[in-house]
Specification:
Helix 3 (80-91) crosses helix 5. The radius of gyration is 15 Å and the shape is globular. It contains six helices and nine strands; from the N terminus they run E-E-E-H-E-H-E-H-E-H-E-E-H-H-E. A seven-stranded mixed sheet has the order 5-4-1-6-8-7-9. A two-stranded antiparallel sheet has the order 2-3. It has a single domain, classed as Spore Coat Polysaccharide Biosynthesis Protein SpsA, Chain A, CATH 3.90.550.10. The protein has 189 residues and is an alpha/beta fold.
Length: 189
């Protein structure tokens, strides 16, 4: 059982579930890992960390609702994760801090989310880092949305490049907690 992370200011959670899952060959959000759909596993980790509410952004509305997830529309379908991130901000108006995580990180723990929250402090965003930066596992301040939105409007689709304009703190986390599942062979790891 996971220990509860430190509690702080209220925050919301968003699971990005709108990807095309081309390499997997089927909807990753609905793919079971240890008997639970990946989107549900990520949402549950966010809830255990204290996120309220937790929403699923994009993807199959009926299937995600059947998993008990609060589905929200992706305003920019097909425009990549930066569009999903902006849609998460739009889906949670009035929320100052949002933990945004990709659906394909089924080993995410509440402790990782808690560590990101602790390190956020006065920064714009706290992003998880293993051997590389993981911008789809982060805790974001809503004040980041206009900067990211302006980059998106200029044609930027890379979160890595868009965050260069923000005050980012990188938070080291265990690689196993951010095991990314993109292809069927990743399920066997």
């Amino acid at each position: 059982m996971e220990a509860a992370p430190p509690r702080g200011a209220p925050f919301a959670g968003a699971v990005l579930t709108g990807g095309r899952s081309r390499r997997m060959g089927r909807d990753k959000a609905l793919l079971p890992v240890d008997g639970t759909a990946m989107a549900r596993r990520v949402a549950d980790a966010l809830r255990r960390a204290g996120a309220d509410p937790v929403v699923a952004v994009g993807g199959d509305q009926a299937a995600l609702a059947a998993l008990g997830l609060d589905w929200r529309r992706d305003r920019y379908p097909g425009e990549g994760p930066l569009g999903g991130l902006l849609s998460a901000f739009d889906a949670l108006p009035g929320v100052d801090v949002v933990a945004v995580v990709a659906t394909d990180l089924p080993a995410l723990t509440a402790e990782v989310v808690g560590a990101l929250l602790v390190e956020l402090d006065a920064h714009d965003v706290a992003l998880a880092r293993t051997d590389r930066l993981e911008p789809l596992c982060g805790v974001w301040r809503a004040r980041s949305a206009p900067v990211l939105g302006a980059a998106f409007e200029r044609g930027e689709r890379s979160i890595h490049r868009a965050v260069a304009q923000l005050d980012v703190v990188e938070v080291p986390v265990e690689r196993a907690a951010l095991r990314n599942v993109n292809v069927p062979a990743d399920l066997d790891q």
